[in-house]
Design brief:
Blueprint lengths: L2 H5 L2 E3 L2 E5 L3 H6 L2 E5 L13 H9 L11 H10 L12 E4 L7 H10 L6 E5 L17 H14 L5 E7 L4 H13 L4 H10 L4 H13 L6 E7 L16 E4 L2 H10 L5 H15 L3 H13 L5 H13 L11 H16 L15
Parallel strand pairs: 3-4, 3-6, 4-5, 6-7, 7-8
Antiparallel strand pairs: 1-2, 2-5
Helix pairs in contact: 4-11, 6-7, 6-9, 8-9, 10-11
Length: about 350
Amino acid sequence: MADWRRRASSLTLDVAFFELVTSKYAKTAELVYVWDIDKTYLDTQFESLRGILRTALEKAFQKKNVPGTKALVRALTSSRDLEKEQDPFPIYFVSASPPQMEKKIRNKLEMDGVKPYGLFFKDNLRNLRPGMLSRLKQHVGYKVQALMELRSHLGDDTRMILWGDDSESDAVVYSLFSDLCSHRVSDSAASKVLEFFNAQQRQIDLILSLRSRVAARDPVERIYINLATDTDPEYYDKFGRKIIATYNTFQTAFDLFQSKRLTLTQLIRVGQDMVMNYGFTPDELAMGLEDLLRRKFLLSDAVEESLQELKSLNLLPPFYEPNPMALQASSQFYQDFVKNPSPPAEIDYIHDFR
């Protein structure tokens, strides 16, 4: 038996779950963070056979973060009460990588100072059989099942913030998960979407069964999609305002600052990490804010609170000033959504017009 099988807490179809805390932590967590790994937390390259082999063979210390993600997770970790800082952090990682990577990923997270609640990996060896080969590169069924399993471990009122990227179908996965939990989508409609993405019938049946066991409410507070392959962010409009597509981690951190999930000091740490360790310029960070402003994801109060401090620390150009009228319009649009966060009446999951 493979070594990882002894460490796995459960293996259901191709979903391998490694639970790293006792269930009391999961059941009592008020807010849980869920991250994809490849191209979301770690800067991995799967575009070539060489990239795949390098990713599989490299050691934990050789794995590179997406710029700013280590600092962001550390900032989120430090936002807890001091007496809880040594406890595991309410973060889960859901990866389509094989469970043979579990030790290396755990070692990398430990190096980054992250103690997650749990990890999910995809046991693709189960898909190396006739009729299952289409599932090797199609991860929607796997990820939706993993998220539904995770939801069953959490308390009824737990909120979730989700991270993914545009190299796969993470927006579909997270939005469908949200629709399933809230019962905005019927069994037949969900089955149709999952079948389209090559989920097997027994996996669909399991997902719907898991849905029936969890509270009928939407746990998803926010979804961040890293634009690793430069998808037009307007593509994500069809999923509703709950999703923010971002070009860099500073944009994500700024939105978390706006929603009071990060302090200004923690936002600054993310910006400094990106400038000092990854070569980002103040102009590039300002362009990120301008992009959020253009798409009406910027709050005037957050800008007013942070602008002078960010400029004084050379994280933004000294001359940078958002257009006041555009900022006012963006802020009003953003606040209206916060007051009435109604999702789209129906999401077209099937047609991908990227």
